C-alpha cells in the first residue's frame, strides 16, 4: 500500500488458491475465530468498538454501535449483505470469489460476538462462481469444526446458510433484503418500526452487515482494535477496498489506507489508477457509487475519508470511484444512471416511481437532441419533488433512500455542466459524439 | 413441461430444511427448478408452491420481481451485456450493437435455434473488466467485437461447456450438512441446488 499500511482484507489475493481451506489455514485462517473464542464475546465487541470499524455497505454506520443496538431476545439473526448491485461497485464480488473463507470467518466472529446461533450470507445471485466458492467454504468450515455444534471445542454453536439472491438492486437495501430472504418480493419496509435491530428477519432482532465489514473482523481480532484504529485518521479508520472504474488506465480494486490516501493518489498513482486513459483530462468523478453526487477536478486532493467527502457535499458510499474524462458526455452519463434507478425503483413510493421515469425520459430527450432549454428547470423541479431542496445528504420523503439518490447525478450534471446540457439543446444532439 | 424430478424434489426438501421458515427457500427452489429446465415452468412453480406452503400464483408473483428468474423459456446461453455507466464509458453500447448484429436478434430476444438469449444488463460488478458480459452468470471481459465473436463461437462449439453450464445451473456446489447447531443430523443437508450434481 502506498502509505505502508498492511493489507487487511486483500492479504491473500496474490494466491490463485486463496479460496481453498488449505491456503486459508496456511495464511493465518481461523486464527481470528480461535482468538475470539479465547477472548469471549464481550471482549470481541470491545475490540470492534476500539477499531471504530465503519460499515462498508454504503451508509458508513459504526459496526460496534450497530451491534450494541441489537434488541435482546431469545432468537436473533445475523445477515451478511453480499447483494452488491450499486453500479460501479465490485469489491464484495472480489471478496466472495477470492477469499470466501475470510467472509465466513468474519461472519462467525460477528455471530459469536452477538450471541447469534443462525446466520445467513445473502450473496448476489449473479455471482455464480462466488456462490460456489462461498458454499464450498461453508461446507469446509463445517468439516473443519468452525461451524456447527461446539465450534472449535467451545460451547458456541452456529449454523450458516449461503443464500442466493435472484437479481434486484433494491434487495441490497437491508429491509428489502430481509423480505427477499423471507421468500418475498424485495419491497423495503417502513422504518420505524422495521429497524432490523428491533424487528428484522421473521420479526426477530437482526444485524445486517456488509461483506467487507465482516471481512475486516478476523484481522481486528488477531491484531487488536487499536492497531486498526491507528490506521487512517479521524472517524475513517483502517483501510478500505476501493473499486476504481471508468476512464482510467488501470481500473481495478485497490485496498488503501483511509484518509491518508487521496482521490488523486487513487486516480493518478502509477501503482493505482495510473492516470486518465489515453492521456486525457479529468472532467469529473463520482466518489462513492452512482447514488453519490459528483465531484469536479477541484476536489481531487480530498482524502479518502468519510467525513471529508461528506463535508464536501457527497459520500464515500460503497467505495466505488467512477472517472469521467474529456471524452465523456455528462448528459449521457447522468441519463444512464437515471435509467438504472428508473428500472430498479420498486414502485412503492410515488415520488420515486413516477419521478425516476419522468426524469429518465427528459434526460433521454435532451441526450437525443430533442430537449428544450426549459427542460433543465423542469428536471430540477422533478428532483426537488423526490428530495426537497436537492441537497446532500438528501431530504427523504420515501420509504428507502433509493428515491432520494436519483437526483444526485442529474443535479450534479446540470449544476456542473449546464453549458453542455444547453449545447445538446442548441445543436440538437450530443456535441461530443464526433469526438468519441 | 416438467415437474421437479424425484431427485430434485429430494434436494428441494433438504433446502427447505435449512431455513427457519419454509418460505425462505422459495428463491433457492426457483433456482433449482431453473437448473432443471433452464426456466421456471408452471409445473415446477406448482411444486415449489407446495414445498414452501404458498399458492402457485404467489410463486409466480414473487419470481417475476426478480431479473434472474424466467417464467418464459430462454436460450441455452443467456448473454447479458452490461451497459451501465462504467461499461458505457468503455464502449458497452457499441458492443451491444455488435452483439445484436452478430446474433441477429435484439436485446430481449432468443435466436431461432434456442442457443442464445441476449439481454442488456445493469451493472454486474465486473466494472474493472469493462465492457463486461455474463453468459449464464459467468463473467467475461473486457470484450471487443472480435473477442465477442470468439466467445460466441466457443459457446456454440462447446469449448466453454465446463466453465459455462446450461442456463439455469447456478451453483454447482451443494450444501453437505444440515443445521448441526440446531440438532439436525448429517443427512438433513440442503443448500443452493443444482440439477447437474455437484462439482467442486
Ligand atoms: C438502494 C440501496 C441498496 C443497497 N445495496 C447494498 C448492497 O448491495 N450491499 C450492502 O452491503 N449494503 C447495501 N445497502 C446498504 C444496506 O441497507 C445496509 O446499510 C448495509 O448492508 C449495512 O451494512 P454495514 O453496516 O456493514 O455497512 C443499500 C442501501 C440502499 C438504500
Ligand atoms: S424509495 Fe423507491 S425503491 Fe425505495 S421503497 Fe420507495 S419506491 Fe421503492
Ligand atoms: S458498469 Fe458494467 S459491470 Fe459495472
On the 0-100 scale, what is the average pLDDT of chain B?
92
Give the distance, in angstroms, between the N- and C-terminal Cα atoms of chain B.
Answer: 30 Å
Kindly report the greatest chain-chain contact and the residue count on each side.
Answer: A-B, 68 and 56 residues
Largest sheet of chain B: 4 strands, mixed
Gyration radius of chain B, rounded:
18 Å
This entry's quaternary arrangement is heterodimer
Structural Rg of chain A: 22 Å
Question: Count the helices of chain B. How many?
Answer: 7
What structural class should be given to the helix and strand makeup of chain A? alpha/beta
Q: Between the first and last Cα atoms of chain A, what is the distance in angstroms? A: 35 Å
Order of helices and strands of chain A: HHHHEHHEHEHEHHHEEEEHEHEHHHHHH
Percentage of residues assigned to helices of chain B = 25-40%
Structure description:
The complex is a heterodimer of chains A (436) and B (200). Chain A is built from 19 helices and 10 strands. Chain A is of the alpha/beta class and 436 residues long. In chain A, a hairpin with a 5-residue loop joins strand 7 (239-246) and strand 8 (252-257). Chain B is α+β, with helices and mostly antiparallel strands and 200 residues long. Chain B has 2 domains: 6-71 and 168-182, NADH-quinone oxidoreductase subunit E (Arc Repressor Mutant, subunit A, Orthogonal Bundle); 77-157, Glutaredoxin. Chain B is 36% helix and 9% strand. Chain B contains 7 helices and 4 strands; from the N terminus they run ααααβααβββα. Chain B has helices spanning 6-17, 26-37, 42-52, 56-63, 85-88, 92-103, 145-157, and strands at 77-82, 116-121, 133-135, 138-140. Chain B has a 4-stranded mixed β-sheet, with helices on one face. In chain B, a hairpin with a 2-residue loop joins strand 3 and strand 4. At the A-B interface, helix 7, strand 3, strand 7, strand 10 and helix 14 of A face helix 2, helix 4 and helix 5 of B.
